[in-house]
């Protein structure tokens, strides 16, 4: 982990990507998180267009995968400036993410981690992220609020999140930002049982039990939104 010039949780996520065979995707996500808040812009005269463009990248599993969609689509246009302009994306931020990504790939190769792609296996990608950020977990309480698992702190999904209207039972967040309330930024949906797989030293099965775990299957009610 000390080989990587990123915070320890990110380094752990990068190392875990080898086990889950999704190192290409996790390196991209890490690079995109490193330029975090500066990917999209909203010109005042084109707010609706900008918001629609942003939503087109949203993944139903959450924001890390939305960022992956942005980068991969940009790569598929051969890193086009025009594409960024059309999608209200900051070209300089993506260029910086690309530079960070190249640096990280070099470091991954130096510690002999194979660069493999597994873009369709979103569970494996999310498990690798959870391996690094297992401390950043919140669950939906009966009152409809999220509480962090370890400290029972009330937190809210940021309005910019792809999951803002979805309210999954268990979420992982990249960071907390306090403005009017404590917002979780960059959020993905996880399953509580993954925590026992990636962090058995930190979580006990009892902590992760709750009656609401017996929820409907994922695909049922997926599109139900609270207005």
What would a concise description of this structure say?
This protein has 227 residues and is an alpha+beta fold. It is 41% helix and 12% strand. It has two domains: 8-122, Up-down Bundle (Four Helix Bundle (Hemerythrin (Met), subunit A)); 133-212.
Description:
The protein is of the alpha+beta class and 227 residues long. The protein has two domains: 8-122, Four Helix Bundle (Hemerythrin (Met), subunit A) (Up-down Bundle); 133-212. 41% of the residues lie in helices and 12% in strands. α1 packs antiparallel against α7. The longest helix has 20 residues, at 91-110. The model is unreliable at 211-227 (pLDDT under 50).
Characteristic terms for this protein:
227 residues, alpha+beta, Four Helix Bundle (Hemerythrin (Met), subunit A), 5 strands, 41% helix
Uncertain parts:
211-227
CATH topology heading of the largest domain: Four Helix Bundle (Hemerythrin (Met), subunit A)
Strand proportion, as a percent range, falls in: 5-15%
Assign a percent range to the helix content.
Answer: 40-55%
Oligomeric status: single chain
Helices and strands, in order, run as HHHHHHHEEEEEH
Name the shape in a single word: globular
CATH architecture descriptor of the largest domain? Up-down Bundle
For the biggest sheet, the summary is: 5 strands, mixed, barrel
Number of helices: 8
Distance between the termini: 43 Å
Category by helix and strand content: alpha+beta
Radius of gyration: 18 Å
Total number of domains: 2
């Amino acid at each position: 982990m000390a080989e990587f010039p990123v915070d320890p949780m990110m380094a752990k996520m990068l190392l875990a990507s080898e086990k889950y065979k999704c190192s290409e995707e996790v390196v991209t996500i890490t690079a995109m998180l490193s330029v975090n808040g500066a990917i999209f812009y909203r010109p005042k005269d084109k707010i609706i267009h900008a918001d629609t463009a942003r939503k087109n990248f949203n993944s139903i599993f959450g924001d890390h995968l939305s960022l992956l969609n942005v980068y991969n689509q940009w790569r598929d246009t051969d890193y086009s400036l025009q594409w960024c302009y059309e999608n209200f994306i900051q070209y300089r931020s993506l260029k910086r993410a690309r530079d960070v990504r190249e640096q990280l790939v070099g470091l991954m190769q130096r510690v002999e981690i194979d660069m493999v792609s597994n873009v369709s296996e979103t569970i494996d990608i999310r498990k690798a992220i959870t391996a690094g950020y297992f401390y950043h977990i919140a669950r939906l309480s009966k009152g409809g609020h999220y509480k962090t698992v370890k400290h029972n702190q009330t937190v809210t999904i940021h309005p910019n999140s792809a999951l803002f209207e979805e309210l999954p039972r268990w979420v992982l967040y990249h960071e907390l930002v306090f403005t009017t309330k404590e917002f979780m930024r960059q959020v993905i949906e996880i399953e509580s049982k993954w925590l026992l797989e990636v962090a058995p030293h930190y979580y006990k099965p009892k902590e992760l039990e709750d009656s609401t775990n017996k929820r409907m299957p994922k695909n049922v009610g997926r599109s139900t939104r609270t207005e």
